[in-house]
Amino acid sequence: MVRKELDELNVAAPHPMTGYSRAKFPHWITQYGTCDTREVVLARDGQGVVQDDKCRAVAGTGVSPYDGKVATKPSTEVDIDHMVPLANAWRSGADEWSTALRRKFANDLENPQLLAVSASSNRQKGDQSPDQWQPMHSYWCTYSRAWVHVKYVYTLNITEPEKAMLDTCSA
């Protein structure tokens, strides 16, 4: 299935960053009660997560699949990564989307777009594509398949180097 999705992605040069702003991707919207997207992902991906009356994660642990680091302070040691970073999505076609679609993309709890990871690995990754940054080797195939699926679901373009790197683990 992933091979089929990868083969159906459009290979194109990146769009310019003209007009890009993270604010054009409204994220961490309220999902239910006082829980925003970030808090939902922290609770979903962590173990023993305790939330206060405002839904903030105040305790719990988690293991970052990107680098294997164990986090015990969700508010400072954990970031929620957009599998396909917002800036990468912009360069891949999201510059032509409506704000509503960008909001959906930035808060997508249905596809493998959001993941609790160590703050350090998320910052190291930045807005890079898989040909520029990879997680630890044992997570590479999971990461690659998730990246392809998100790009496929949202009909985003990929570059030739990105496709070549993703093809190493798309079967």
Q: Which term fits the overall shape?
A: globular
The helicity comes to: 25-40%
Percent of residues in β-strands: 15-25%
Strand order of the largest sheet: 3-4-5
Low-pLDDT sequence parts: none
**Major beta-sheet overview:** 3 strands, antiparallel
Q: Got a strand count? A: 7
Total DSSP helices: 8
Average of the residue pLDDT scores:
95
* Oligomeric composition of the shown chains: single chain
How far is the first residue's CA from the last residue's CA? Answer: 8 Å
**What value does the Rg take, in angstroms?**
16 Å
Order of helices and strands: HEEHEEEHEHHEHHH
Structural class determined from secondary elements: alpha+beta
Describe this structure in words.
- By secondary structure, this protein is of the alpha+beta class.
- It is built from eight helices and seven strands; from the N terminus they run H-E-E-H-E-E-E-H-E-H-H-E-H-H-H.
- The protein has helices spanning 2-8, 37-45, 74-77, 86-91, 99-106, 119-125, 140-153, 160-166; strands at residues 30-32, 35-36, 47-51, 57-63, 70-71, 78-82, 114-118.
- The chain has a three-stranded antiparallel sheet. Strands 1-2 form a two-stranded antiparallel sheet.
- A hairpin with a 2-residue loop joins strand 1 (30-32) and strand 2 (35-36).
- It is globular and about 45 Å long.
- The termini are close together.
